[in-house]
Amino acid sequence: MPGTRTLTIIKPDAFGAGKAGKIIAHLEGAGFRIVAARVVRLTTAQAEAFYAVHRERPFFRSLTTFMTSGPCMPMILERADAVAALRKTIGATDPAEAEPGTVRKLYAESKERNAIHASDSDENAEREARFFFAEADTI
Ligand code: CMP
């Protein structure tokens, strides 16, 4: 999916607080089309695998505990220049540093409980999309 697709997750803080609808509306308003979506509660093994790149970080255990604390909503989104456009739309990792009007500025609680995930490259978008979805799950 070079260039046009990316993977997002509405994280357990935002999903559990009933913010999924507003966040999806925000993403659609920014020009993204949902091509796959599901609601899932990650196991610890799944969260550790998804965030394996952060395994050595001091926040790894806390991050996987948070990501398994309740249901979340992974989605594959489509738009031109999808990876960069989504990262701009959601804002900086820490909501205190996020631009006004971004998803994290509007809906995130903290640097860890930051409402939403976005792939950081086309390569990771492909890997992360395949983590949650089979080819047959996308339209
Ligand atoms: P995400 O975009 O999903 O990628 C990795 C996640 O780790 C990030 O969002 C945050 O939820 C979390 N994270 C990154 N940096 C920190 C940090 N310094 N302290 C706690 N959590 C962090």
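^ adenosine-3',5'-cyclic-monophosphate complex. The mean pLDDT is 97. The first strand starts at residue 5 and ends at 10.
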